[in-house]
Amino acid sequence: MENLDAWQYVATTLIFVWTGFVRSGLGFGGAALGLPFLLLVVDNPLVWIPLIGVHLLFFSSITVGTRLGAVDWAFLKKAFAIMLIPKLIGVFGLLTLPTEIMAAFVYIMTLAYGLMYVFKYQIKSKSHVFDSFLLVVGGYVSGTSLIGAPLIVAVFMHRVSKEKLRNTLFVLWFILVSIKLSVLAVAGVNFWWTAHLWLLPAASIGHIIGLKLHDHLMSDNTVRFKQIIGGVLIIVCIIGLINIMGSTR
Q1: I need a surface site. Which of 23, 33, 41, 246 has the fewest CB within 10 A?
Q2: Domain count of the fold of the chain
Q3: CA-CA distance, 168 to 125, in Å (whole number)?
Q4: Rounded Cα–Cα distance for residues 191 and 200 (Å)
Q5: Which pTM value belongs to this model?
């Protein structure tokens, strides 16, 4: 995050406005819909994940702090118990696998999300076994790159009431990210604390806009909006994968 070019500073600022907007507007997806863009600025997940994680802790705490009663604690405990070990395995994978592999993993997972948005495919869990499978995979993906939200949300959407869904997810993100950041801190990963002086205000702008538009974004009239997002994600991920293949030749 030091000695970036001017365009990188501008791009990073705008992307963090976007992640703040998505995080508060949808209740999930800040990392999944932001990390692929950030990797085009600096292609190292370990640069961005601590920054995104700290922001998620900050905004989730102030969003849920006054509404702890609007959380489905019973299901949250069950889901967390299933995700904990895969989450830890994913975090250690992030620390040990090569940067190119982790970046490619992010692009491939996000490409899949983009295709689902474009073709209006929604993951639907119809059994407790499939619930557990999605939570295990989502926990692992969340551990490696913080982009497991769509898989996890597929379970929570039909197990948690709509009134409690966003706050329950925010509490879950807070717990999962706290674990991840604790491991990264012990491992000596740079958290780029000074960068928060300009990235936190940027994310705050997006967060406020997202809060105001939350009800609209969660309505049934946003299919076209998600399709557009999916199309952009597909393009970004293809560009990112091409860059990775070019750099490894």
Answers
A1: 246
A2: 1
A3: 18
A4: 13
A5: 0.83
